[in-house]
Automatic annotation (TrEMBL):
Its main location: cytoplasm. The gene is rimO. Binds 2 [4Fe-4S] clusters. One cluster is coordinated with 3 cysteines and an exchangeable S-adenosyl-L-methionine. Its EC number is 2.8.4.4. It is found in: Cytoplasm. This is Ribosomal protein uS12 methylthiotransferase RimO. The lineage of its organism: Bacteria, Pseudomonadati, Pseudomonadota, Alphaproteobacteria, Kordiimonadales.
Amino acid sequence: MTQTHTSKVGFVSLGCPKALVDSERILTKLRSEGYEIAAEYKGSDVVIVNTCGFIDSAKEESFNAIKEAMNENGKVIVTGCLGVDEGAVREVTPGVLAVTGPQQYEQVVNEVHKAAPQPHDPFTHLVPEAGLKLTPRHYSYVKISEGCNHRCKFCIIPSLRGDLVSRPIRAVLREAEKLVEAGTQELLIISQDTSAYGLDLKHGLEKWKDREIRAHMTDLANALGDMDVWVRLHYVYPYPHVDDVIPLMAEGKILPYLDIPFQHASPKVLKAMKRPANDAKVLERLKKWRSICPEIVIRSTFIVGFPGETEEDFEYLLNWLQEAQLDRVGCFKYEAVDGAAANALPDPVPEDVKQDRWERFMAVSQEISAAKLQQRIGMEMAVLIDEVTDEGAIGRTYADAPEIDGKVFLEGAIDYVPGDMVMAHIDDASAYDLYGHVVIDDDQDEEGWDW
Ligand code: SF4
């Protein structure tokens, strides 16, 4: 029998969950064509580096990854956000085989065909129906649209990824269904602007199972809620129709968790940022949402030190945060991004002031988080296990998204595997994490539970 060479492709995936989904699509296509995905540079016929070019530190990490792949292997294809500026990539790392931008799956695959021969018999049997995933099997990101119709001044995503293009709702639901069939326990819905989903499709109707549903966030959440797994919504702007998903959370159809990137609270700064939905009466709405669904957890991110932000604006933000009592909060010091409109704004905030505001902001948010987590002590909560070590299991409750929020440490819970769902008694809490022990696992619970 003749031994044939199977082309091997090395892969480095950097950046946000949206870039991760791009990587999964490229890998799925290559695997379906019979390529092997290699864990090391050495021995790979070609290496793909999926880059992030959003802020300077991400660019630097991407350039370092390209240089490392060039040194170790020498045959490198660059894709992703950094690829939008091909000239800069070629200037810093001359000799790369090709440079393509985000979502250019076909071009990447074509470049791989040129660099490494396509295997002769591309049997598709090695590809699971749900595609290849870079996240653990028990949770999956589902990207529902690309691009964004807004023009926030600090952001270059619309120039990198274009205006909003929503995926047909049937395609999203079919993908979600395949992921659930393959063992996913948690679907994380991502996009640049989840509440705008379907706007470009004029929220048109499509047939799904025995009914017709609109390409609309509410219908999507409802249909995903029928799949009997955790459904978590990310990047939701507080447009009025967001009110309609809160009852779905109260009913237990989707997780009572909303990731709303507010970025600021001062009307003046929000206006200068050109943020969408900035005129919504957010505090009142939070109150209303909590009255409908008391378990709801709100996660958000903020930027301090945006050009023109005064001490008064910042104090407005701190007071707002105290009042809003958000559960999970991230904060960034404003950083100029090449090509962003905000670079032309007057009154930059000095670095030491940004640092001081960041520290003050984090102190308030940490205090809120610690107080909220203290209230969890004594509760029994469903925990989805992400990791098992010699000392116990590490998982998350509904209140925590993977990689960005807190964790639950279950000491001594070593007889589990990632993806198991257990009921845990919460014994203790720190500012961001919970500590507890398993009281019941899903094999013992015939009825099942939500959270
Ligand atoms: S909503 Fe604003 S920050 Fe978000 S992707 Fe669109 S332009 Fe960027």
